[in-house]
Amino acid sequence: MELDEMKKQIEAQKAKFANNGMKEERAAFEEKMKAQEAALEEERRRSQDNYDRMMKEKLDQENRMQQFREIEIKLSEGIPKIAEMNTIAKECFREGVFYEPHIQTEVKPDGSKVSKMMVRVYPDRNNIEESSLLPWEVFNDKVYFEVKELYETYEEKNFEIDETTIDKDDDGEIFGWSLSESWHHIGSIYYFLLSVYNLIDIQKDETPVIDSKGAIAGKMNYGVTVEVLDTDRTTKLNVLDYESLQECVGKYLRLTVDLRRVVDIPEKYTFKTKCKYQFLDQEEPFETKVCEKMREP
Questions:
Q1: Phi/psi at 96 (nearest 5 deg)?
Q2: Both 146 and 197 in a single domain?
Q3: How far is Cα 60 from Cα 186, in angstroms, rounded to an integer?
């Protein structure tokens, strides 16, 4: 309302000055009113940004609470089933197989967190380095019934089975550790784009791969190209005409991130490697092609 009223005042003063022929006073008044209008618009933008941020934080908190409620329900259902599966595995001559609940938390690019219940399965409980994470739905809807079916088969034979004759080739499918593709999260990569703020291309840079414990698990070589686009989002503008992002208000920025290669990652994870990332305006993450058997994929 303030902005609309100010525009009316400007138009009224323009008519007055036009009638009186006071060009200099008119120009000075218009300049002053434009500055006040810009200040009001900036204040309005800040207020909207603050409101949007507070609403996002509130929504994130509500989502987190809902996630925890769902996890609590799944845990109350899942822990007895997991204990049952561990018992059945022993009775079916698979003493090494072991299941445990796992809460996986993923940090999205916008800073929000998504937690979900998973089940970790160890083919050999004495080797904690080798395991697979199963989504709760896969464990509950498939693995649980597959293992129960195997148990019933043994039960019909009163468990009078020569263990040396047991064919365990399908154990990975039955007990779950080889269902689909099980990927290990090596670590996360963070880009510090101060040079982008100053509209400077990053021709070649390196950032560490940080694992879940905060240790460096490798390094990513990358580059970033900066383009400034006009309001039509297609016309390229000369980036040299702008000093920083502050001068690009109202324009569009296109960043091209070139993931060249990752080095120094643990050798046991180099047989298959891929990178996954997600943009703020997209729900589904984007995945690169899988690099196989490359020391520096």
A1: -80, -25
A2: no
A3: 26
